[in-house]
C-alpha cells in the first residue's frame, strides 16, 4: 500500500484530499505545517508528498529546500498551490518538484494524477 | 689771443715792466759800484799785509842766516871741520841773496841804514874777518881768534838782533792795524748796503702804490657799476671811459655790453608779454578741455551704467545726477512710470510723489504733442529767498515715449534765473531716448530673470529629481529634490559636477550599480527619440527605490545633453509590494475556500456518497462559502473606505444600546463569556450605526477568534474626558510587542501558525481603523502574548461640552456594581440607564450561566434577575445556584419578571424584592440607594 503524506495548513483541504483519495486505499498521513512534514519525512518513508505552497513558518518551497537530497531524488512531490502564474510554476519546477496542481483543483484530476504517479 | 692794440703802449703791463726795468738797472749799477770800491780798498790792504809778511819772513831768514854764520864759524874754529866750513859759505851766499831781496823791498830810512850796515858787515866779514879767522884757526892761534871775534863784530850782531826784535814788534803792530782797518771798512760797507736796500724798498713801495692806485680804483668803480646794473640803478663810470689802459677798454666794453643788454631786454620783455598772452590762452583752452573731459567722464560713467546696470533705481539715479551735473537744475524730478521709480533733487520724496501723482492731463497731452516744453514764470516769494529783484523760473517738462507711443517717463526740471537753451533741451531729449532703450532692456531683463527664478523655483520644488547632463557627461544642473533622493549633498550644486564624480557616487550608493551605470552611460552616449527608464535602489541611508527617466536634448539634429528625471518611487514600490502581497494573500485566502467548495461539490457530483457524508460535505461547502463571502465583503469594504467612496450616515446614537445589541448576538457562543460592563454616564455619539455595528462585530469576533481556548470577553464602556472609551478584552493568545505596531497597517497579517490556523484576511483591523478615523476617534491595542489582548477605541461625545473628572467617576462607580441578568434588550437598557443615573455600574448578562460565573470575579452590590431567561437555565435556577454557593450566599437578589410573584420561592431564596413587570424603573434604583 502506497504511503502518501499530505501537507497543508488548512484542515478542510486535508480532509478534501483524504476524502478524494479514500477509494484508492492508500495509507494517507497528514502534516499541518512544514516543520511537521519534515519531521515525518525523517521518521518514515513515503511514496508521494502532496505539498501546499503557502504555509506559515515554512513555505512549501522551504520544505523542499530543507529536504535531504536522497529523499528528494527518490520520492515524487506534487505541489498544490494557489499561485497559478507561469513564473511560479517555473520556479517550482526548477526546485525539483515533479508535479504541479493549482488551487482550486479538481478532486477527480488529483485522483487520476496520484494514480498515474504511483503507477509509474 | 687778444692782439695788443696801440692803446696797450700805455697799458698797465708795459708801465709795470718799465718801472721794473728801471729798478733792476739802478740796483745793478749801485751794487757794481759798491763792489768795485770795496774790492779796491780790500786789495790795497791785502797787498800791504802781504808785503809786511814777506818782509817779516825775510828778516827772520836773515836773522837765522846771520846766526848760522856765526854758529858755523865758531864750529869750524873749534873743530876745524871742513863740513862746517862748507855750510858757512853756503850761509854766506844765502845771506847775500836774502840781502839782495830785502833791498828790493819798500824800506824805511832806518831799514836802509841797517841794510847798508849789513852789506858792509857782509863784505867785511867775507873779505877780512873770515880769512883772518881762517888763518888764525890754521895757525891755531886762538888768542888771535878770540880777539878777532871780540873786535867789532859783536856790536853789529847785537845791533842786528835788536833790529829784528824791534822789527818784529813793529810788523805785528802794523798787521793788527791793517786788520782793524779791514774790519772798519767791512762795517762801513754793510751800513752802506743796508742804506741802499732801504732806499730800494722805499722806491718799490712808492711804485706799487701808484700801480695799485691805477688799478684798484677803476675796478671798484666797475664793481659798483655792475652792482648798480644788477640792481637796475643808473650807471656812472665817470672818467673811467677815457682811460687808455685795459680798465678803460673794460669799462668801454662794459658800457657797450650794458647797452646791448638793455636792447635785448626790451626785446625779451616784448616777447615775454606775447608769451604770457599765449599762456593765458592755453590755460583757458586747458580749462575748457578739462571741463569737456569731466563731462566726457560723467557721460562715460552714465554710458557704463546704461550699458551694464540691471537696477532700475540705480539707472535713474545715475541719469538724474548726470543731468544735474550738466544742466544745473535747482529742482528736478525724474519719474519713470514703467518701473515706478523716480529720482529727485531739491524736493522731498513725498512732495515729489505728490507732484508725480498730480501731473495734469493737460500737461500730458501737451507732452504727447511737443515731447518737451518750457514754462517761464515769476519766482514765488518762497523760491526767491532773500533776492530783491524779480527773477524768472524756467520749468522744463520733457518726456519719453516708447515704441507704442505711450508715455513712459517724465522729467520736470526747474532752473531759477537761467533759461534752458534749445541745444541743451535737444541733447537732453536725445539722452532720455537712449536711456529709455536701456530701461526697456532692464525691464526685459527683469522679466527674464523673473521667469528664470520661477523656472528655478519650479525645478527646485518639483518632487522629482532633475539632472541635466551635458553632451560630455558632466552634470550641469541638479535640483534640490535630486540631492535629497540620491543624497548628492556632498557634491557641490554650484558648479558642474564632472561625469566621473557623479557616476562614482551613483555606483557607490546604488544596490545594482552595474545595471544603473550601464543605463546612465548609454543614455549619455546614445541619441534616442523616446524616453528611456530604469529602476534602481539607493542604499546610502535608507533604501530608496528610484525610477530614472532619460530624455535626450536636441539642438537641431545634434544631441546637446540628456535630462535625467529621478522619481522616488519608494512609496509606490512599497504599495506595489503590499498590493502584490495582498493579491497573493487574497488569492490564497480565496482559493482555499474555493478549493473546498469546488472539491466537495465535485465529490458530491461524481461519487456515490452516503447521505450523512453528503450532509457533512454540504455543511462544509456552506461554511466555506460563507467564509469566502466574508472575505470578499471585507476586501470590498476596505477598498471602498480607502477610496473614500464609503458613505457614512451620521446620526446621534446611544452607544450602549448598540453595545447591548451586539453583545446579545454573541450570547450563544459556547466557549466565550461575552458580557458588557457599562460605566458610561454619557453615551450619545455622532456615528453611522451600520459601521459601529461592523466595528463591534469585527473586534468582538477577533477577540473570540484569537482566544480559541475560550474565556471572558469583556466589553467595557467608560467616559474619558469628553469622549466615550470602549475596551474589548479577551483572554486569548495575545500579540507580541513588535507585531502590535504592524497590526493596523493595511495588508499586514501577523504571520504565525496559531494565527494562520485562525485565518482571516488581515483586513479586519484596517477596516476598524478606517471607521474610527472617520468618527474622529482613536484606536489602539494593548496585549501580552499568552495573556490576552485589549482593543481600545474612543468616540467623541455628541454633546462634547460635558467633561468628566476621571477620579469622580472612579470613586462613584467603585464597588457600586449591580449585575443585570436580562434577555430583553429594551428593558435591560431602561434599567441600566436608571441605575447608571444613580451612580451605579451595570454589568449586563444575557446568559444566566455566564452571569453565574461572573459573580465570582466581581464584587457586587446586588443582582437583578429575570425569570424567563432561556431554555437551559431559568432565573430560579440561577438564584438557586447563587444561594447554594458560599461566595454568593448573602448577595441581595431582586427578581424582575413579568410572571406573578411566587411567595414561597421569594422566602426560600431570601429575595430582596420581587418586581412584577411593568414597573417604573426608579423602583429598582430606590432599592439600592436606600
Textual characterization of the structure:
The complex is a heterodimer of chains A (120) and B (930). With 120 residues, chain A is of the alpha/beta class. Chain A has one domain: Response regulator (Rossmann fold, 3-Layer(aba) Sandwich), CATH 3.40.50. In chain A, helix 5 links the parallel strand 4 and strand 5. Chain A has 6 helices and 5 strands. Chain B has 930 residues and is an alpha+beta fold. Chain B has 27 helices and 22 strands. In chain B, the strands form 4 sheets. Chain B has a 10-stranded mixed beta sheet, with helices on both faces. In chain B, strands 2-1-5-4-3 form a 5-stranded antiparallel beta sheet, sandwiched between helices. A 5-stranded antiparallel beta sheet of chain B has the order 7-6-10-9-8, with helices on both faces. Chain B is elongated. At the A-B interface, helix 1 of A face helix 15 and helix 20 of B.
